[in-house]
Amino acid sequence: MDLQFDIVIVGAGHGGAQAAVALRQNKFEGSIAVIGDEPELPYERPPLSKEYFQGEKTFERIMIRPAAFWAERNVEMLLNRRVVSVDPEAHSVTTADGATIGYGQLIWATGGSPRKIPCAGNDLTGVHTVRTRADADRMTAELDGLTQAVVIGGGYIGLEAAAVLAKFGKKVVLLEALDRVLARVAGEDLSRFYEAEHRAHGVEVRLGAAIDSIEGDGKVSGVRMKDGEVIPAQMVIVGIGIIPAVEPLIAAGAEGGNGVAVDHQCRTSLPNIFAIGDCALHSNGFADDMPIRLESVQNANDQATLVAKTIMGQELAYDAVPWFWSNQYDLKLQTVGLSTGHDATVLRGDPANRSFSVIYLKEGRVIALDCVNATRDYVQGRKLVVDRLSPDPAKLADAEMLLKELI
């Protein structure tokens, strides 16, 4: 072995960093190494499409911990290294440069890689995804010469990036293949509200958009639609989801497919190997125990903490309520629970006032809330989701009534 550690954590994002932090917090005294494929120490990723891209936060402000923190806790940071294979029998991983690193226990926290749009021109200069600091830095470097951008994908990444570009005064066309933005994660009330907000800020939102190719001679110059129209652009940002980075684990025999399958303690089917965060396919009680992947900081952090406690001998099962957030313009969206599979919605407040909540029900039970500039609803509504309560919908809709009164 080139190196040997008691715990090896593959992935230096939120989950990997939190796993190392939680192990030390829970008095783990063995050796810990974090392997990251970027040159930077662990940092927050959500600001990449918002505050960091916008220049409101420096990189130092989005670092999860300063360098001294890791040194003081004897956490070895093996950066700019990519794990390409796992040998579960030898208890080792191999990196792209040929190094072999042994482990007692392995925590896989690699997240995923951005999906490329499957069309000609997707590799032209000026076509970007938003997953790393380097991605955001490349986009920032092109802002001065930018007049028009095309954003492909109406999920949170695409909407957040469009909001920043619009704030910079750029002409933005947002292309969404489905019939509304946020279609996979939210109800129609929220989708239509955000479409209207972006249009009010000058973003041209096109729904049901069919893309043929991305055009340019070395550098992007436009996006050709299926009907032949070419939308001029000096920048294209693609936000159409991620592919979970689990190939080495699957190749080593781990169960999975869309992610690596884990149990309620985040154990994979391979001995002494855990998986957490965006890449972990787990049965979730807030999704009727369906196997899902959750792409959120909350999920990564909570699973990391659970694994640390499991390694230290505590018998726990993952049951954390999912939550998410998104900042666009002066709108703060806070979500608790999972709205997938809802059969009814309750609109609480008036979207025209730019402060309201959408409450999602399934068989009368509250399963999720989307709260726009409505932090009190988010805080109080959390317990409705956690306790799986079934309040009177008329009372839920009464914005004058505090949600905590329905508990």
Poorly predicted regions are none
Summed up, the helix count is 11
Gap between N and C termini: 57 Å
Find the count of extended strands (DSSP E, 2+ residues). Answer: 26
Protein name: FAD-dependent oxidoreductase
Domain FAD/NAD(P)-binding: 5-304
Keywords: FAD, Flavoprotein, Oxidoreductase
GO molecular function: oxidoreductase activity, acting on NAD(P)H
Name some characteristics of this structure.
26 strands, globular, 32% strand, 407 residues, five-stranded parallel sheet, seven-stranded mixed sheet, 11 helices, alpha/beta
Characterize this entry briefly.
This protein has 407 residues and is α/β, with parallel strands linked by helices.
Description of the structure:
The chain is α/β, with parallel strands linked by helices. It has 11 helices and 26 strands. Strands 1, 2, 3, 4, 5, 6 and 19 form a 7-stranded mixed beta sheet that branches. Strand 5 and strand 6 (100-108) form a beta hairpin. The model has no long low-confidence stretch (mean pLDDT 96).
Indicate the topology.
Elements: E1 3-10, H1 14-25, E2 32-35, H2 51-54, H3 59-62, H4 67-72, E3 75-78, E4 83-87, E5 92-95, E6 100-108, E7 112-114, E8 127-128, H5 133-141, E9 148-152, H6 156-167, E10 171-176, H7 188-200, E11 204-207, E12 211-217, E13 219-225, E14 230-232, E15 235-238, E16 242-244, H8 247-251, E17 256-257, E18 259-261, E19 273-275, E20 280-284, E21 290-292, H9 297-311, E22 323-328, E23 331-337, E24 344-350, E25 355-362, E26 365-372, H10 375-386, H11 393-397
Parallel strand pairs: 1-2, 1-6, 2-3, 6-19, 8-15, 9-10, 9-15, 10-11, 18-20
Antiparallel strand pairs: 4-5, 5-6, 7-16, 12-13, 13-14, 17-18, 20-21, 22-23, 23-26, 24-25, 25-26
Helix pairs in contact: 1-9
Domain Reductase C-terminal: 323-406
InterPro entries: FAD-oxidoreductase/Apoptosis, FAD/NAD-bd_sf, FAD/NAD-binding_dom, FAD/NAD-linked_Rdtase_dimer_sf, Reductase_C
Keywords: FAD, Flavoprotein, Oxidoreductase
